[in-house]
Amino acid sequence: MSPSPPKPDWPRRGRVTLKPFNHGLSAEEWRRFWESFRDPEIAEWNGNRPLKMPLWLFKRVVSGEIKRGDRIGFVILDEHGDWLGTLELYEGSRREATLGIILGRKDRWGRGYGREAVAAAVDYAFERLGLEKVKLRTFSHNQRARRAFSAAGFKEVGVEELPGGKQDVLMEITREEWREAGRS
């Protein structure tokens, strides 16, 4: 089954398009999304254990979270319309939101797709949602993610100590910083 063509109003940057979850996920997109949460390496990068729930339950849980309305989810598509991962803006208010991203296609890591997806989400947050700030957290040892977030304009604003000797780096970008960088 070939992917559906992106809609003109979907967020995009460079080679990446963000397909809103409310446009429906194909069976293949659901399967890849679920598999990324089951992958031990990806789970470790996200501070979790690999997911054990079956696909049908995963769909139900994610769909319920999206219907609550406090988060906006996207499938990340590459330049050919193929699934790369997922991204969401959550813990949203009228002023700010938290960004989360999982690039589930490990064969695409380190090629700039994550950076482009983050930049598309930031553009969307400021242009379409009218937010004043987007924030995130990532492990201090996840240098690849920190570089992608910095390239999209995020600045490190703090460090939080975690159990087991790990640290989370807190990062954010404001609408004003985004404008000053000429991204608007």
Q: What do these coordinates show?
A:
It is a single chain. The mean pLDDT is about 85. With about 180 residues, the chain is of the alpha+beta class. Helix 4 (about 115-125) crosses helix 5. It has a domain at about 10-130: Aminopeptidase. The termini are far apart. The protein has an eight-stranded mixed sheet, sandwiched between helices. It has six helices and eight strands, in the order E-E-H-H-H-E-E-E-H-E-H-E-E-H.
Reconstruct the topology from this structure:
Layout: E1 12-13, E2 16-20, H1 27-38, H2 40-45, H3 55-68, E3 72-77, E4 83-90, E5 96-103, H4 113-127, E6 133-139, H5 143-151, E7 155-161, E8 167-174, H6 175-180
Parallel strand pairs: 5-6
Antiparallel strand pairs: 1-2, 2-3, 3-4, 4-5, 6-8, 7-8
Helix pairs in contact: 4-5
Tally of helical segments: 6
Give the C-alpha Rg.
16 Å
Average pLDDT, to the nearest integer? 86
Spatial order of strands in the largest sheet: 1-2-3-4-5-6-8-7
- Form type: globular
Major sheet description: 8 strands, mixed
Name the beta content range.
25-35%
Helical content class: 25-40%
Number of strand elements: 8
Task: Give me the CATH fold name of the domain at 12-130.
Answer: Aminopeptidase
Helix vs. strand class: alpha+beta
Based on the coordinates given, report the CATH architecture of the domain at 12-130.
3-Layer(aba) Sandwich
Order of helices and strands: EEHHHEEEHEHEEH
User: Unreliable stretches, pLDDT < 50, 5 or more residues?
Assistant: none
> Quick one: CATH superfamily of the domain at 12-130?
Gcn5-related N-acetyltransferase (GNAT)
Terminal Cα span = 36 Å
What is the CATH C level class of the domain at 12-130, in words? Alpha Beta
